[in-house]
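Quick illustration, no need to memorize.
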Amino acid sequence: VVDPKPPVAKPVADDQLLPKLAELMRQGDVPPVVALLRDAIDAQPLDLSRRKLFVDTMLALGQPRLAAEEARRAADLFPEAVEMRLLASRAYAELGDEAAAREQLNEAIARDPNGPLARQALGEAALLDLQPEAALQHLLKATELGATPDQLFRRGLAYALAGDARRFEQDAQAARDSASAEPAVGQARYSLAVRVADRLVAKTTRD
């Protein structure tokens, strides 16, 4: 029987984990970070927040393969954790595996077709297809009940593609004002902006 309520990634309980992680990330050495987070997951394998922390951190460190593998594993363990499917999709996209990215995205949407996370993912996919009108349709729907910084950032990108500089500035400023200090968050937004820009440049070159 599937629990109708998806598991939510709550804050990691271990008070020492995040300070240790921050120290290792400042040193910039990936293997100790991986070992620390693997140990944390092994200690509490049913703690979804630890798996999400691993994925976010690997994306921030430029390790999308490790991120994709763990996000996929977490999604299989927690089938209703739509966010993990979306993270897997993002990680596969950074690897350049568009087929796997689309598979994970479609699975997330199938499980929660009208939820804000699915709408955000659809908006992101439309952004990457350089379809700002479709992106705005999904992102405006996603933000009806209150916008998260990630949704504001993506909506701002959609407005920028559509040529609406005023609304882009509004959303970009709102996203900055409410942004998390976690490096993984900034890295994920930067990565998305670069991917959109790269596709726009490629399209302009072809045209």
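The chain is about 75% helix and 0% strand.
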